[in-house]
Specification:
- The complex is a heterodimer.
- By secondary structure, chain A is α/β, with parallel strands linked by helices.
- Chain A is about 40% helix and about 25% strand.
- Chain A contains eight helices and twelve strands.
- In chain A, the strands form three sheets. Chain A has a six-stranded mixed sheet, with helices on both faces. Chain A has a four-stranded antiparallel sheet with strand order 2-1-4-5, covered by helices on one side. A two-stranded antiparallel sheet of chain A has the order 7-8.
- The longest helix of chain A has 16 residues.
- In chain B, β1 and β2 form a beta hairpin.
- Classes of the chains: A alpha/beta, B alpha/beta.
- Chains A and B meet through α2, β7 and α3 of A and α7 and α8 of B.
Amino acid sequence: MLKINNLHAAVDGKAILKGLNLEVGSGEVHAIMGPNGSGKSTLAQVLAGRDTFTVTDGSVDWDGTDLLALPAEERARAGLFLAFQYPVEIPGVSNAYFLKAAVNAVRRHRGLPEYDAMDFLARVKAEMKAVGMKEEFLYRSVNEGFSGGEKKRNEVLQMALLEPRLAVLDETDSGLDIDALKIVAEGVNRLRSPERSMIVITHYQRLLDYIVPDKVHVLSQGRIVRSGGRELALELEEHGYGWIDAEGKATKTAAGARP
Amino acid sequence: MSEIDTWVARQRERAAHLPGAALPWLTRRRADAIARFADLGWPTSRLEAWRHTSLAFLEQQALAAPPSDSYPDAAHPAATLAALRAAFDDGGHWLVFVDGQFAPTLSVIGTLPTGVTVSALSEAFNTAPDAVEAAFGTADDSASPYALNLALCGDGAFVRLARGTALEQLLHLVFIGATGAADSHLRNLIVADANSEASIVEHHVGGGATLGTVVTRVQAAQDARITHVKLQQQDAQAIHVAQIEAEQARGSHFASHSLSFGARLARNDIHTRFDGEGCETLFNGLYHVDGRRHVDHHTLIEHAMPLGTSREYYRGLVDGNARGVFAGRIIVAQDAQRTDAVQRCDNLLLSKLAEADARPELEIYADDVKCAHGATVGQIDEDALFYLRARGIDEVHARQLLTYAFAAEVIERIAHDALRKHARTALLARLPGGAMLEELL
């Protein structure tokens, strides 16, 4: 269970998250939608531990652990996974090396035996097949020269290998055509389980046709301004974000008016 | 008597005993060379090409004379050599020099194809004096350290490849500094006739606080293919000043890989000139300096004829208080139409006090050319660092991995498998956490 309470975060002194509250139960899939600049990616990065963002107030409790007190690598080992909106290219580091180092770091932390080269290859090849990635991608540098779709598949592959308790998918649909989107969504759906919570961040409701959320939240100006079921996403699809923005501004004005 | 005079007096004293002293042409060139050195003195920062790398301190340096014909610690060179040979499964040809002198008992030259000569220069003075004379070079236009080299060198490698011959195995030239109290001056001559092919590796190891100058001259005739790899891993007190001079005839291919990992001060001047159409060259380099060490690469690629292709990629890892210097010059002459040249130099600063200077220089006098260059000095990419950490890899390991990956791109351009692996091991031995990375790669 993840409990985000009154989270405030800033970058370079500029406040972006301004009192965000969210609870995600075990096995639940929550979608977070919102217009550009509403703080969606900031939320993802803050949860993953990016230190360019400063948490100025609030707390994040994750099954009794103070998530914000942990450095990024410890969050990952404890089972948090961020699927990056823009997966980073790392020339010179082979995907195979990277995946093995990541998987073994997590396994060590969980008290599981590290994979040897043979076992690891068998496992990774099976997972690659499941997300429709060719084997050659193992021997190429991490994400280097990958197309948008290939990068996102590589993210889903990592998620499958790392078996997180909490997965945060940051605009995993951006830059994907419909076929790639379906493959990525299938990969995600395959990983849904009662022990695994997911936060799916997206600008468009399109992704939610394929990854059906338990709850939908609308983020505007650094806070969750509406929460509801799947129908909320459809409402947004129909009306756009204009009415949310207006509502957000109204709330802010009201809050500012208080002494 | 000034310190320059001391060097000059020493040369005059040594000259009569240097190998080749009986050759009148050599005696003349040596005399001219020492006169040039006496005239110029050690290069100081007043000279543009030595602005970042003054050798003025050598004027105060009292260097012991080299040992006579035997070296005191015989076990050291043998052990060093054995370790090196093991890395190559004992294959290849090995020409070994200890403290600047040919070591015949350590050298192992396998069966060579007919038409291929591999010998010590000190022997070649007697066995092939005319060929040596033609390839030896003069000090007429040399920077002063290379004039001193000509005046004092008595040994090195002499390699001759007759037309159409190919040396299939690597030729290793191993230069071991054993006493740590001598200066050494070596000259390697590589004469490749038309259509010949060879890969030659210079290993520079040991050396103590020695001053070593090395000049390697390569003549690549029409369609010859010469790969030269230099792996400098000398002791952290050594001073290494070296020049590689190549001349390329029509359609020839010359690759220079310079890996500079050791020495307190290492200076490399690398130059090739395209004397015929359609030449190709690759200048590939990597340096790692830490502590208060200093490395400087000055390169020059002269596109004197049309249709030449040059690729130059240098990378530097600069740590501690160290300094890395790269100055790469490409000249495209008016006649060198349809030249295709790319030059890059990228540096990674690993500490706040590290300093890197990267200066690309393009002089283009032709109008139909494709030339690109770029230089960067930077830190580890924070996005990449976070990406690795977000996958559970701790920050220290992530930094080491990214540092290695940055440097490894240079090493990946070495085509020979065993050599590439050896270079990779040498790099990992330099980097913190290298042992862990090696396990996983």
